[in-house]
Amino acid sequence: MLFSDYFPVWNQLTSFQQQKISNALISRQVEKGTLIHNGSMDCTGLLLIKSGQLRAYILSEEGREITIYRLFERDLCLFSASCIMRSIQFELMIKAEKDTEFFMIPAEIYKQVMEESAPVANYTNEVMATRFSEVMWLIEQIMWKSFDKRLAAFLLEESAIEQTTQLKLTHEIIANHLGTHREVVTRMLRYFQSEDMVKLSRGAIEITDKTHLELLLVHSTGSR
Amino acid sequence: MLFSDYFPVWNQLTSFQQQKISNALISRQVEKGTLIHNGSMDCTGLLLIKSGQLRAYILSEEGREITIYRLFERDLCLFSASCIMRSIQFELMIKAEKDTEFFMIPAEIYKQVMEESAPVANYTNEVMATRFSEVMWLIEQIMWKSFDKRLAAFLLEESAIEQTTQLKLTHEIIANHLGTHREVVTRMLRYFQSEDMVKLSRGAIEITDKTHLELLLVHSTGSR
């Protein structure tokens, strides 16, 4: 599998630029759970995902987490190279949610190419706009959606990603995705169970009534 | 006042590109309260602010608002031309908070120049990264900060912008900035008043103890 197949504007680079990137390119494999990027403390480089799954999240001072977005095959991870733009002023953590293979372009090399190549700069713009849209979606969720909807949406999303109704997820992990406390997740899951939408067991959640969960999403109950 | 003085990469444009922008440039003046951009329904163009103040916010289905960021003199407003990037998939409203003068570059013209000019594309990237950082800051506020801190921060910010301790703000307006209900604002302001931090009167809030409000920001009380 070649980098050029994954990088959409490859053919718009000069051969010198192509060479420059090819020479600097690193292939890496990390295990599930690896912390790939730790806020502004490192400027790892841009990642182009070959296979696997990454999770971008932020941490509160007290160590609470909330998932900002996720990255899948063919996605470009920009903020692992936050030093390429001085205006990126936030601390994002990036962790492998599954065993993940990716190409890494060193930040300095990407920056040099981006500065002289309009196609690369415009492609980077589109990537950032995509993340921006995801973050705006998240704000809408946090602000206007009640927690039952957010939890239902998360379970359905997980089910779609994993292509199973048997989710191996602890309440703690869900709390870290949604930026809340474990107790809040447990309480709502028990309510879902009492309504026969899910079945709970140790370290796992089975979705037993997908339609009911989906209905929850469209119902317009009061938000906070 | 010339556009070229405000646009940082002007000197990196070809004279053809400079001409193209100059010919298309529109100077506009709007009154306080004017809705300049209404979600994806229009693609007004990029705005470069000469004087005044704009507010970018989102709306819930029920008509609730939350301020995403504000724009001041010399800021470039990108999302009023969201059609320049197909990955911008969110509905932002932009309204004048004060009488505002700005240059408008039609979206199509800007897009054409950006597609061929690496400096313009990279500048646009930096502008988007700046907004992105503001949005990430907002998420942190919403997620980890208790409402007393968010309200204190907002009052101090307003006071800094207006350079006065006499704020002409209704509780409704504050609620729309912070994405909450008027009652919540009123309750907290009354608490602030009982602690002698502010003095409330009809349509106005006087900051009487700035230091106390600032202390609130650094105090690490529990968040929600």
List keywords for this structure.
four-stranded antiparallel β-sheet; Arc Repressor Mutant, subunit A; Jelly Rolls; 2 domains; homodimer; alpha+beta
Structure description:
2 copies of one chain form a homodimer. Chain A is of the alpha+beta class and 224 residues long. The first copy, chain A, has 2 domains: 3-142, Jelly Rolls, CATH 2.60.120; 145-218, Arc Repressor Mutant, subunit A (Orthogonal Bundle). Chain A has helices at 3-6, 15-24, 107-116, 118-144, 147-162, 171-178, 182-194, 210-218; strands at residues 26-30, 35-38, 46-51, 54-59, 65-71, 76-77, 93-96, 100-105, 166-167, 198-201, 204-207. In chain A, the strands form 3 sheets. In chain A, strands 1-8-3-6 form a 4-stranded antiparallel sheet. In chain A, strand 10 (198-201) and strand 11 form a beta hairpin. In chain A, helix 3 packs across helix 4 (118-144), helix 5 crosses helix 8 (210-218) and helix 6 packs across helix 7 (182-194). The first copy, chain A, is elongated and about 65 Å long. The N and C termini of chain A lie far apart (48 Å). The model of chain A has no long low-confidence stretch (mean pLDDT 93). The interface between A and B is large, with 43 and 43 residues.
